[in-house]
Amino acid sequence: MSKSVVLSSQILSRPWARYAFALLATAMAVLARFALNPVLGDYLPYITFFPVVAFSAWYCGVIPSILVTISSLMAAQYWFIPPTHSFRILNTEQLAGIVAFSLVSLVIVAMGEAMRRNAEVLREAQGELEERVQERTAQLDTANQSLRELTARLLQLQDDERRRIARELHDSVGQLLAGLTMNLSAVGADIERLIKTANMVTDSAALVHEINKEVRTISHLLHPPLLDEAGLASALRWYIEGFAERSKIKVDLEFPEDFGRLSRELETAIFRTVQECLTNIHRHAESPIAKIRITRTSSDVRVQVADGGKGISPEKQEEMATIGTPGVGIRGMRERLRQLGGTLDINSTGKGTVVVARLPILSNSATAAA
Q1: What are the structural domains, with CATH classification, of the chain?
Q2: What is the rounded average pLDDT of the residues 128-136?
Q3: I need a labelling partner for 213 at 20 to 30 A (CA). Which of 52, 191, 202, 299 fits?
């Protein structure tokens, strides 16, 4: 129906086209009646003209339809109603046929005009609705863009704050604890004769040493200085060694020797992705092993983290795929990678989970760390 409305609008928009189509349709009706004349004779002289009137009423408008009705009457009277080649009316039966055809044609014209106008109103309403949908879509795209920019800014602020806290812990608390350790060591040397007190001082010094170790560990976990100073390879090996010792999970790292350096944003994103994956394996997977494989091409970096745990249940995978509400850690990883043009894929069965992250490096090659 929408195609008919469009065709009607196109015809009505050109006055000459309305009359041309109407006359052409009338001529075709006359030819069709001539073709049927050997069969029908003077019986049903108007049979081929009713479709023409309906066509004109729908597509050509009121005036062309009336013109078609008059032309059809004249053509039928002249060629198909005895006496042929004459407009003379012989009897009341012919007059009744003319009146009936005229009345039926007027009804068809009125109905066609009403339907055409209703269809035009519907088309205009549909156009307005499509414009509103486009406006709402543009507003939604703008809101989504603002949300992505805000998320990127929050992630950047988070990394900056971690870096600041790590530096403060190292520069302030770490130095104070080192001085306290030296003072306690001196006190322990002076009171060696007091065995009990010396033991207490020794225990205190050991506690201070453990506190200092924990503070340094927390500082490095917040933002490992090796990531900025020695690069991604050293930072990952340091983190994996500590993680394996704390969690008792065997971690295998496959890292190319000629990997080189990347920009600070890319190295931070890769490190955080590996960190989050290992944390999830420790908390949820119940896997004794984890395998990390990092590869690099001229255009991108691929990070794969796999485990041999219980995997993610089908219900949870369906919830993550349809509702789109993964955990905070997965959401943070995905958003961080998306800000850098990367992707995150999670494949899980009953025998483990494989997380694959891809990051492009073409746009970041100019900012690679020297």
Answers
A1: 2-136 (no CATH), 231-367 (3.30.565.10)
A2: 91
A3: 191
